[in-house]
Amino acid sequence: MNGNTRAPAQIALIDLLDRVLVTGVAVDAELTLSIADVDLVTISLQALLSSVRAGGHRHDSDPRLAS
Amino acid sequence: MTDGRGVWLYAVTADGLDPHDLADEPGIGGAPIRTLAAAGLTCVTSPVDLREFGEDALRRKLNDPVQLEAIARSHHNVVAATARAVPAVPARLATVYHDAGRVAALLAQRRADFTAVLARVTGRTEWGVRAYATAQAAAPPPAAAENTGSGTAYLLNRRAELRAADSARRASAHSATVVHTALSRLAAAARSHPPQSTQLTGEADTMVLNGAYLVDDDKADQFAATVADLAAQHLTLRLHRTGPWPAYSFAAVTEPETPT
What residues contact residue A9 under an 8 Å CB cut-off, 6+ apart? Predict the structure, then answer.
């Protein structure tokens, strides 16, 4: 990654999750965890993400909403 | 695994990461960041208490919006600081090992894979581009029939509306493909993630492209300019660039979709 550029101070959570989960969270809303190589955990993120939305989450990376 | 100490993995890098580069970044739960070298590679980790970050406890935490956000941001901050310092393979959120020995074994086992991914991301940065179909692209056409009193007219109107909406959807999808293709040509690798649903984005407009592009650092300006050009050319789309990102979308060991 380019060492001269810093990420914005606050990234929208939905974008962050989209990256750090990299599982198409928006579509199947499930997260598979790899714990100790073998144990797989599936988490339902559906209710979670709905509540993130309902909480009036920041969308500071989206200029349309900021204006 | 009975002593309750686990290891949270943030990223894998080549040897030579200076721990001072990460000194200011607290790990998950405020734990100190530790680097662990094996097989010519370095893992960026922090200790976690498995009573708090074992399977069940972690599931509970990740289902709590406040804790999920805190964990995701901590994870990302460490990954981003690592990727700013050296080429890095980001680990997916919530990759927890029961002991450091397992992490070292992982490095040894998958050394060739990690080395290949490190070669792919060196000197490159991930950028995201999302495209939304704008409201006017999806607007219904003027009424197809004047006579609103008849059931036939209603059906004709309704059918015309559906046709127009369908045609607008196809046009947006086509534009999104054109944009993705153009950006992929500039990138060393490209991926098309599933679009985020409007329910999650809170946007009125439908997302039609959720692209990720691994771009040479000396082409970053050209990439940004191309996004602006494409936005001007495709008025039925609203484009939004995100990044710079650590190469989350290109960390998979399997070769990602390559531009043609």
Answer: none
- As a whole number, mean pLDDT of residues A23-52 equals 40
Residue of B nearest to A1 (CA): B125
Contact check, Cβ <8 Å, B240/A62 = yes
B220 contacts A2? CB cut-off 8 A: yes
Asked if the ipTM is above 0.85, the reply is no
How close A52 comes to chain B (CA, Å)? 6
In terms of C-beta density within 10 A (0-12 exposed, 13-18 middle, 19 or more buried), how is residue A4 classed? Answer: exposed
Which residue, B259, B228, B253, B260, is CA-closest to B121? Answer: B253
Contact A1 B83 (CB under 8 A): yes
When scoring B51, B92, B222, B223 by the number of chain A Cβ atoms within 10 A, the one with the most, hence best to mutate, is B92
From residue A31, alpha-carbon distances to A45, B54, B143, B202, B217 in Å are 7, 15, 45, 21, 31
The pTM is what? 0.79
B103-B61-B55 Cα angle (round to 5): 45
Going from the first residue of chain B to its last (260 residues), give the mean pLDDT of each consecutive group of 10, the final group possibly shorter.
75 85 87 91 91 80 82 93 92 81 83 90 96 71 58 88 85 94 97 79 85 97 97 93 93 56
- Mark residue B29 as left, alpha or beta (left: phi above 0; alpha: psi -120 to 50; beta: remaining): left
Chain A residues in contact with B73 (beta carbon < 8 A): 16
A66 CB within 8 Å of a chain B CB: no
Which chain A residue shows the shortest CA-CA distance from B6? A36
Checking B52-56 for CB contacts under 8 A at 24+ apart, the result is B53/B6, B53/B8, B53/B28, B53/B29, B53/B96, B54/A35, B54/B6, B54/B96, B55/A33, B55/A35, B55/A39, B55/A41
What is the pLDDT at residue A60?
37
